[in-house]
Amino acid sequence: MKFSIAQIAQALGARAEGELDLVLRSPAEPQSATADDLALALSPKFADALNRGQAVAALLWDGADWQALGLRAAIFSPRPRYALAGLNQVFERRPNLPTGIHPTAIIDPSAEIGNDAAIGPFVLVGARAKIGANARILGHASVAEDAVIGEDCLLHSGVRIGARVRIGARFIAQPNAVVGADGFSYVTPDVGVVEAARAGHDPAASLAAQHYARINSLGAVVIGDDVELGAGCTVDRGTITDTIIGSGSKLDNLVMIGHNVRVGTDCLLCAQAGVGGSSIIEDRVVLGGQVGVADHVTVGTGVVAAGKSGISSNVPPNRFIMGNPAIRAEQNIECYKIYRRLPKLAQKVENLQKAVSKAAAND
Asked: What is the pTM of this model?
């Protein structure tokens, strides 16, 4: 599919100059762009790369001299990277899934399928499930009994939506995401090693043979509007109450959300982040890659946690934290500087010990 400069600029709400009827096929990096591509030169540092390519049109930073760059047309945005989000929607290659229900799909007679929904091959929709209008469910996905999925949702291949899960509009789940699996919740008849350790007791005193009794998950999962889950992401159902993911939140590949967790609105949880059961992630929190949040912890609104941070206690709002255990970023940096100096400090102490021992020997 091709679009003119004028059409692209209108879709982005951006300003355009030059040959507005110039037709382009796709965005491209500046150095590899052809005459049919829209080069993405989002800042002055891409000017040289633009000269190495063959582009005749580009998305440029505000104030760029497009004619001096040898272009025939240009689109300008005060925030080009934000414009990129809209640009990729213009040129999006949507899944090739025709409206209607594929003959190999198994749809329970009591399920409700919204208007213009597209149900792919080998999809399973359980009893009393409700699929919203314009939803797209790709092959081998499943939606269990009593689940509700809002309009304009997209479930990629292999996605599993569990029983009684309720999902808002414009939800996207990448391949093999799982929503509504049982929580990881077990208990021993007597005090176990974990409870003993948390209470400050010697875990060795609780090493008698014990078996773990399963605590079944009776709750479900509730997800707001405009939420996205990455490939292999998992959201466990609640034990009694529901696990909640707030509207606008985005969870990357392999993110794990434990039972009873509450994630607020517009949160960003990066790859391999994990949130322990019954923790609360308030609004607009960012968890970097591989961040771990212990159970029964509250992370305040606006917190940003750097990658690999270990959060084991409550975090006040609007803090930038890092390290394990996670502390204020600037404090962690100072600690790291001290850590790097430890070998030299140890050598100084050793030299002083030798000097003192030598002096004592000479007395």
From this structure: 0.87
Q: Give the pLDDT confidence of 326-341 residue by residue, as tens digits.
A: 999 999 999 989 989 9
Q: Determine the length of the chain.
A: 363
What confidence tens digit (pLDDT) does each residue in 137-191 have?
Answer: 999 999 999 999 999 999 999 999 999 999 999 999 999 999 999 999 988 887 7
Q: C-alpha distances in angstroms, 124 versus 100, 116, 136, 168?
A: 14, 18, 13, 20
- Per DSSP, what are the bridge partners of residue 37? 26
- Is CATH 2.160.10.10 the classification given to domain 100-327? yes
Block residue for tokens 């707001």: 224
Q: Which residues contact 10 (CB under 8 A, 6 or more apart)?
A: none
Which residues are identified as catalytic?
259
Crossing angle for the helix pair 80-90 and 5-12, to the nearest 10 degrees: 120
- Beta-strand ranges (E) seen in 112-196 are 112-113, 118-119, 124-125, 130-131, 136-137, 142-143, 148-149, 154-155, 160-161, 166-167, 172-173, 178-181, 186-187
**259: three-class secondary structure by DSSP:** coil
3-state percent helix, strand, coil for the chain, nearest multiple of 5: 20, 25, 50
Are 114 and 131 a contacting pair, CB within 8 Å?
Answer: yes
Contact 5, 20 (CB under 8 A): yes
Topology classification of domain 3-90: 3.40.1390
Task: Say which amino acid occupies 313.
Answer: S
Question: Phi/psi zone of residue 235: left (φ > 0), alpha (ψ -120 to 50 degrees), beta?
Answer: beta
Between β-strands 213-214 and 172-173, what pairing exists: parallel, antiparallel or unpaired? unpaired
- Evaluated on CA atoms 98, 99, 104, 105, the torsion sign reads positive
